[in-house]
Amino acid sequence: MKAGRLWLGGVMLTSCFGVLSGCTATPQKTEVSTTVDTKKLAQPATEPQIVVAAPVRPITRPASQPRKVSAAQQRLAQLRLLRQQEWERQQAAKQQQASAAPKPVRQARPVQQQAQAPSSVSYGGKGVGHYYAASLTGDFAGDPRLLSFIEQMASRGFNRNYLFGVFSQVRNRDEVARLWASPASASSPGGWYNYRSKFVTPANIQKGTQFWQQYAGHLQRAHQQYGVDPAYIVGIMGVETRWGRILGKHRVIDALTTSALTNQRRSDFFFEELANYMLMTRSERMDPLAPKGSYAGAMGYGQFMPSSFRSYAVDFDGDGIKDLWNPVDAIGSIANYFAEHGWRSGQEVAVPAEVASSDYANVPDGFKVKYSPGQLAQIGVAPKSGRWSNTARTHLVALSTVPGGYKEPWIGYHNFYVITRYNHSNYYAMAVHQLAHAVKNKVGGGN
Question: Where in this protein does the record put region Disordered (predicted)?
Answer without folding.
Answer: 90-123
